[in-house]
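Subject: design request, 121 residues
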């Protein structure tokens, strides 16, 4: 039986990988795994060992605690928001912009739109 925490950790692995624009095959190769094994980690089908999770955190440039963000008392929060593919691609596109002024302007626009939607909701 798949544990909800393993599913959550797997989704966070996938989120961090997508934000960096990395493929399952590429990450798996760097970790000495098959892409199928990484896929099992990302779905929560296989549990990730502590040592492999540490390697993943270094490769994906996130602290090990990142994989557990959103968990309360060992159980996933019901409405934890994980990044979908489109959002991950948008974040990747934003981070690839070299001009800091342009990047900051886009961030400001996004925050403004979000705050307008929050007020109208």
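Subject: RE: design request

Done. Sequence follows.
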């Amino acid at each position: 039986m798949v544990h909800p925490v393993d599913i959550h950790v797997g989704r966070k692995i996938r989120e961090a990988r997508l934000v960096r624009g990395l493929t399952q095959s590429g990450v798996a190769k760097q970790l000495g795994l098959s892409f199928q094994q990484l896929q099992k980690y990302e779905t929560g089908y296989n549990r990730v060992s502590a040592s492999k999770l540490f390697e993943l955190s270094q490769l994906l440039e996130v602290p090990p605690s990142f994989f557990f963000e959103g968990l309360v008392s060992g159980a996933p929060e019901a409405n934890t928001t994980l990044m979908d593919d489109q959002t991950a691609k948008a974040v990747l596109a934003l981070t690839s912009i070299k001009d800091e002024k342009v990047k900051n302007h886009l961030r400001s626009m996004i925050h403004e739109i979000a705050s307008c939607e929050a007020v109208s909701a």
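The radius of gyration is 16 Å.
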